Amino acid sequence: MKSQMFLRSVIQFYSKPSWMPRPYSSGNTEFNISGEVISILAKKKPIEPALEPLVPFLSQKIITSVIKDQVNRRLGFRFFIWASRRERLRSRESFGLVIDMLSEDNGCDLYWQTLEELKSGGISVDSYCFCVLLSAYAKMGMREKAIESFGRMKEFDCRPDVFTYNVILQVMMREEIFFMLAFAVYNEMLKCNCAPNQYTFSILMDGLYKKGRVGDAQKLFDDMTSRGISPNSVTYTILISGLCQRGNAEDALKLFHEMKSGGHTPDSVAHNALLDGFCKLGRMVEAFELLRLFEKDGFVLGLRGYSSLIDGLFKARRYNEAFELYAVMLKKNIKPDAVLYSVLIKGISKAGKIEDALKLLSSMPSEGVYPDTYCYNAVIKALCEQGLLEEARSLRLEMSETESFPDAFTDTILICSMCRNGLVRNAEEIFKEIEKRGCSPSVATFNALIDGLCKSGELKEARLLLHKMEVGRPASLFLRLSHSGNKSID
Hints:
Blueprint: H1 2-11, H2 27-43, H3 47-51, H4 60-69, H5 73-83, H6 92-103, H7 107-120, H8 127-139, H9 143-151, H10 162-173, H11 179-191, H12 198-210, H13 214-226, H14 233-245, H15 249-261, H16 268-280, H17 284-296, H18 303-315, H19 319-331, H20 338-350, H21 354-363, H22 373-385, H23 389-400, H24 408-420, H25 424-436, H26 443-455, H27 459-471, H28 475-482
Helix pairs in contact: 1-8, 2-4, 4-5, 4-6, 5-7, 6-8, 8-9, 8-10, 9-10, 10-11, 10-12, 12-13, 12-14, 14-15, 14-16, 15-16, 16-17, 16-18, 18-19, 18-20, 20-21, 20-22, 21-22, 22-23, 22-24, 23-24, 24-25, 24-26, 25-26, 26-27
């Protein structure tokens, strides 16, 4: 799904209207031109000089048709590279088609062979030809290859344009290890006098917000506006979502109004981000007031919005209202997903209705939704809080037999509860199971067991465990574990 979303966002950069008049529009003429192109591809070497006289008669439709019908993929790639030099012949369809061809067996190797062949023949290529290659690598999850290919553009005397930079920046911002490299590429872009556009800033700001670097994202926004670039709907939505995720819903709402007054129509992502932002802050009155205003503008509450509101009501201990809203949602034939089930199970458990939570958990597969780790952890935590440790362990065992394996949070919940109830030996057994699975216990898990050992007077074992936590692992790993915090016991 993520790769498809990435592909759609890349292709939209190249959706340009055909501004040239088409000399012929009849189906028969297009068929004849397509046939002539296919004949040239089969008989002429090199193909480029022979194709030039046909340029006035070509259309985006003919380009796509020829590529689709070409059995020899290398010839198809070469024709695409030749045709894409002319902006009026570029289209979403041909761009997406070539990405599919590259994704097939040895497709990228054949494309590189085509590029090398063109270089040997003294035929230049432009950055658009590399954009399609970078996009294909990204679609296949081969981000290192995409970055390597971007670096090789200079071998072909090909200078990246703003669209190419946007594609590679989007690739880099999706991987933690390439995050800083993305900003080095952005600085290179500026040094090369390649002016960034709205998409460039949107990509970078989105990455910064997701990393929690709100100040840097806002500086980048200021930089964008100082360059005379007005934010578009995508930019505004990213800013609104980022501010809401960081608990700054009020500023997000101001931006929302600014967005509307600037003539931009907010989409469901912006509406849902604001609803979620106010719900997370526990400001349910304002959340429902916003919903009423949004609905006046034509917004239709969907699964994402219902999930945020139901979660907010549960957190505010307004259980009856949460159940009522869920019933309204079901009447509208909106089916819950794993996220909403997790919200429901957690809310029902907090309301003290453990049996109902267990029933809901067991009913999920029959509804076509399978419980994830979050669903199981919510019930296990509730069972532990009520002292039902055997039931909690049984559920953990059931969880191990599904695709939702116990994680560090599951084990920390159980170890904390067992230590609180004086079952330190049982807690140690679970701790050993974690290590047998080849997993590294989190700092919170270590802390829970160390605390339990100390309270039971087993100070020697506690000191050994502390030493193991601090010394018995690489420092870098220890730092990473330290960031895990106590999410499982919040």
